[in-house]
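FORM 12-B: Structure-to-Sequence Request
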């Protein structure tokens, strides 16, 4: 695992993922993009991880694209991949490698909780919006900042921002690059909670989630990710399918027994592919 994105386990079942380029406000270099994807893909297959806390080391969560990349763009390179990852999607997945650095957090089977402090600008904002839930420090600042550099957001924001705000708000944020305070971001729906210590709050919520059946938690995430923009047939069919797989399963039986016996449950790790 690259030192640019670190993963440590908390309380056995929680993965503490940190962007680790603090001297650059965790700005996104090509190596940082690759490290984010590598970290996300390593978690994709982890049956023991029940929740992920995503944060950044140093003075900010992520300042967006590295300034060296913008300098490269100003020189108008013939090959844009010299300054940013591939902008062409692979045949096996809808997103390209730049988009995957943010989109993979939305696609992880377990809940991802982002803890934001300092700045979450541009690509940093898009990575944060790939999480399921976001805690922001009171002084945090958030922006869909790409317009400042003559660009549009292109790290899966079309698949994440639409879940949080109406289309007119999405357009306004994209057209202006306005920098939002934590409370302004919360009022618009970009941030779930504003707190003094977002990482501590994220860990506390992750611990609560990790105490529940991991099968049911993963099924719940899959249900909403699939049905939120689906038609009624898709949602209702998936509800029934997922529920039938949970009823009578070892972890569901353990949840019942633990409640009946008034004790803490002892859940098994999720089976691969579940």
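FORM 12-B RESPONSE
SEQUENCE OUT:
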């Amino acid at each position: 695992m690259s030192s640019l994105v670190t993963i440590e386990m908390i309380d056995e079942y929680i993965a503490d993922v940190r962007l680790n380029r603090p001297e650059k406000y965790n700005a996104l270099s090509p190596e940082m993009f690759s490290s984010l994807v590598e970290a996300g893909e390593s978690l994709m297959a982890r049956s023991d991880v029940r929740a992920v806390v995503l944060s950044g080391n140093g003075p900010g969560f992520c300042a967006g694209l590295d300034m060296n990349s913008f300098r490269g763009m100003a020189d108008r390179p013939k090959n844009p991949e010299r300054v940013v990852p591939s902008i062409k999607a692979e045949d096996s997945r809808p997103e390209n490698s730049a988009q995957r650095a943010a989109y993979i957090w939305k696609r992880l089977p377990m809940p991802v909780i982002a803890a934001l402090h300092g700045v979450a600008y541009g690509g940093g904002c898009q990575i944060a919006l790939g999480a399921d839930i976001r805690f922001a420090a009171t002084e945090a600042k958030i922006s869909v900042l790409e317009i400042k550099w003559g660009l549009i957001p292109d790290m899966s924001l079309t698949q994440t921002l639409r879940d949080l705000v109406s289309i007119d708000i999405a357009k306004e944020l994209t057209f202006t690059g306005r920098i939002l305070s934590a409370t302004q971001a919360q009022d618009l729906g970009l941030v779930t909670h504003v707190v003094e210590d977002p990482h501590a709050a994220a860990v506390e919520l992750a611990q609560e989630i990790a105490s529940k059946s991991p099968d049911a938690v993963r099924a719940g995430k899959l249900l909403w990710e699939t049905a939120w923009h689906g038609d009624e047939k898709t949602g209702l069919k998936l509800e029934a399918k997922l529920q039938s797989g949970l009823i009578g399963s070892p972890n569901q039986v353990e949840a019942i027994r633990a409640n009946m016996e008034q004790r803490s449950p002892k859940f098994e790790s999720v089976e691969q592919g579940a």
